[in-house]
Amino acid sequence: MSHSIYVFDAYGTLFDVHAAVRRHSAEVGPDAQFFSELWRAKQLEYSWMLSLMGRYRDFWALTENALDYCLERFPAVDRAIRPKLLDAYWSCDCYPEVPELFKQLKQRNAKLAILSNGNPKMLNAAIANAGIGDSLDEVLSVDEVKIYKTAPAVYELVTTRFRAFPEAISFQSSNRWDVAGAAAFGFRTVWINRTGMPEEYHDIKPAAVLPSLTGLLNL
After folding, report:
1. Active site residues
2. The total number of structural domains that make up the chain
């Protein structure tokens, strides 16, 4: 095994960010897919905007703000669904291959960590819901540095915590922009391209592209 430290993005990589809306899609209505995609897009947009301004609000606040925008954008969706959607976000579904992958990596004596925009309470809830806490050596949140990915200070949390050089880290994310940021920092990066999206950062390529986390064991 070429790497002994594996770091994973959380939302979109380990946990399905669209699970919350999917659970209540009948109540959201025919625009459920677009609603969910916009919720995610605005959540990330707010994180980048704040980082560029040198400001910070935790990721749960951004999640709430993004949902409120979506409810305004889709006035046909009953605002009474808001608490249901937020509650569902605390327990986003884990992708099915994750528990077994973590088990096999631990059998190889790998160190496993999460590095996420999510705040600690969000991450702890999702991890508990997925039942993967025993496999994790570290859960790292941008809350420690008060700036969002793709700021180098976020990726430096990993090298500081493990006392390792960047090239010793294998970093996995479903978010291509996150992969670009981690690669620029010096990590070996693996893009988990679950939805077959086209390449967009041709000058900062990942070491590998996989359709799910399953193939990670063979790299």
Report:
1. 9
2. 2
